[in-house]
């Protein structure tokens, strides 16, 4: 019975996470207009892809490290480094894409927003 409950909550969490993207894009487009919605959409998708860099491979090792070969501060340090690389890559992407001003700020801030998700993942792994 526990496995069914875990499956349900995992599925519910993934659905809400996916739905948040749609709701955010709809809200930005409705409030700010189509052009700004497009900038948000591209920046959000880029931040989502860069989250793979931010979450780079720590959780699988952390979850299976039953003997605690590595300490939690080591996992956290690794995640902080990959998150810094993630935000740096996002800022570089914005600069190389020719984004300036508000567009660059949106791109970098969305990377920071997704970086928080990546950082939270290592903390969840500790629990």
Topology:
Blueprint (H helix, E strand, L loop, with lengths): L1 H31 L1 H21 L3 H7 L7 H25 L5 H25 L1
Helix pairs in contact: 1-2, 2-4, 2-5, 3-5, 4-5
| Arithmetic mean pLDDT | 88
Report the oligomer.
Answer: single chain
* Number of strand segments: 0
Q: Radius of gyration from the CA trace?
A: 17 Å
Residue share in β-strands? under 5%
* Main beta-sheet strand count, sense and barrel state: none
Q: Helix fraction?
A: over 70%
SSE arrangement, N to C: HHHHH
So how many helices? 5
Principal-axis shape equals flat
Structural class comes to mainly alpha
Note poorly predicted spans: none
The span between the termini is 21 Å
Describe the overall structure.
By secondary structure, the chain is mainly α. It has 5 helices and no strands. It has helices spanning 2-32, 34-54, 58-64, 72-96, 102-126. The radius of gyration is 17 Å and the shape is flat. The model has no long low-confidence stretch (mean pLDDT 88).
């Amino acid at each position: 019975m526990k496995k069914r409950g875990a499956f349900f909550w995992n599925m519910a969490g993934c659905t809400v996470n996916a739905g948040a993207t749609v709701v955010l894009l709809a809200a930005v487009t409705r409030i700010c207009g189509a052009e700004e919605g497009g900038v948000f959409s591209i920046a959000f998708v880029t931040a989502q892809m860069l989250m793979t860099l931010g979450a780079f491979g720590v959780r699988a090792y952390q979850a299976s490290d039953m003997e605690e070969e590595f300490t939690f501060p080591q996992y956290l340090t690794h995640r902080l480094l990959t998150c810094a690389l993630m935000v740096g890559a996002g800022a570089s992407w914005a600069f190389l894409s020719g984004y300036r001003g508000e567009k660059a700020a949106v791109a970098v801030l969305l990377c920071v927003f997704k970086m928080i998700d990546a950082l939270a993942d290592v903390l969840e792994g500790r629990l």
